[in-house]
């Protein structure tokens, strides 16, 4: 068996945890606190601008000890070394996984197949700096000589969610005159709605696509090209200064007609959902400036160092990953909620959904064996006080166990004290109520709060680029820890291919010619066709 291919169920700690889970039905978080006055501080980790309190979890020292043993006995350490040293740990695609190199410095000496990669990274950053500064300083001109006022990022999945989430989160650092727009969905509402708001003479389009074959992105781009032609009489606008491409496959962008000097590249060893640190972050650099973009990289780099060097018991991503495994595999929780108490982080749950579910939503091991145990949980959530008035009922009194991550910004210059006190007070109250519950005698059953509901609380000092970078890297590594212990390849996404394949034959060929439709799909296809002839 290869050193990176260890089924977790074969490890002694896995059996220990199964036994602990069987005997943990009476394990009460409140009782753990009563027994241990130091629990809050012992079960907390500070790193850089982040503070993680994980004391409100259904774990005691024994369980934590076994979880940490699981990490030790698994291939986690060798996988960390393999990832940071550029080995091809994405085995199904034979690719290295080096998004961490994008935030590295020369002295970190990241290598892929023995070749130093920092030169490529520095070159890409320099190009981003050059373009973003020109746009921000009003020196990047459209075809009629006017300066850019609006930037549209067309991309989907990792070529959209990261930049979109970061630009929203760091809005306070945004250039005051430039407006950033994001278009991802192929539903025309998004692109047409965006084009209505902007002037073609002053619009710059960034076509972001790692492969540059993604049909949604290409269709939205073609619609935008039609709009330039219609409004400005500008055919082939993709060859003008209104269009920049960001891709790992230059030839595809060139074939699409983007001018070679306006193609920014990144390497195939950057996974799509890990790409916001690469040239895919161009929209971010234009929005908040290169200096702030690089501060975000620095925050992530510090988290990388923390992850690589801290002992597991003080290692934030390891602890978060292990707690997730405890709930997922031993207490049978099927979902996990991400609840930021900060409207600017409202896209974080969607971003983490892709990160976690596309990375770890797998059922076979790296050697192709069927796993027989659950992997990625269903990740969901939304911002705090909105959620309280919508789905928190289920968290408090529902029948599902939903481990929850609360995330809050401690100092927020944008939030007046009265609002901020309310916001953070609400978050603290929810964590406390979920844990303590309320089960006094003579209370009618519908008023009983069973409590013992677990949560982590992540406090971020301030929502700066540095701290945001650190938090994103924290979750990246948490997902990596879990994928390593589950013995899966977290860096491919073959599960998305079949749907794309059927869609392309449905859309372009007519199913009669080759694509066999099941009776239900055929019925729906015919009905749509009868009503509006869409597939004629
Ligand atoms: O279909 C899934 C996916 O490949 C994601 O992994 C990726 O982030 C997204 O599509 C977009 O891909 P691209 O950047 O190549 O357009």
List the helices and strands and how they pair.
Elements: H1 12-22, H2 29-35, H3 39-42, E1 44-47, E2 50-53, H4 61-73, H5 76-84, E3 111-112, E4 115-116, H6 118-136, E5 150-154, H7 161-169, E6 179-183, H8 188-197, E7 203-208, H9 215-232, E8 243-247, H10 250-256, E9 263-265, H11 282-288, H12 290-309, H13 316-330, E10 335-341, H14 348-360, E11 378-380, H15 384-388, H16 392-397, E12 404-409, H17 417-436, E13 455-460, H18 465-486, H19 497-508, H20 519-532
Parallel strand pairs: 5-6, 5-7, 7-8, 8-9, 10-11, 10-12, 12-13
Antiparallel strand pairs: 1-2, 2-13, 3-4
Helix pairs in contact: 1-4, 4-13, 6-11, 7-11, 11-12, 12-18, 13-18, 14-18
Bound molecules: 6-O-phosphono-beta-D-fructofuranose (F6P).
What are the defining features of this structure?
alpha/beta; 20 helices; 3 domains; Rossmann fold; 536 residues; binds 6-O-phosphono-beta-D-fructofuranose; globular; 11% strand; single chain; six-stranded mixed sheet; five-stranded parallel sheet
Description:
The protein has 20 helices and 13 strands. It has 536 residues and is an alpha/beta fold. The protein folds into three domains: 41-73 and 311-491, Rossmann fold, CATH 3.40.50; 100-293, 3-Layer(aba) Sandwich (Rossmann fold); 501-532, no CATH class. The strands form three sheets. Strands 1-2-13-12-10-11 form a six-stranded mixed beta sheet, sandwiched between helices. Strands 6-5-7-8-9 form a five-stranded parallel beta sheet, sandwiched between helices. The longest helix has 22 residues, at 465-486. The mean pLDDT is 96. Bound molecules: 6-O-phosphono-beta-D-fructofuranose.
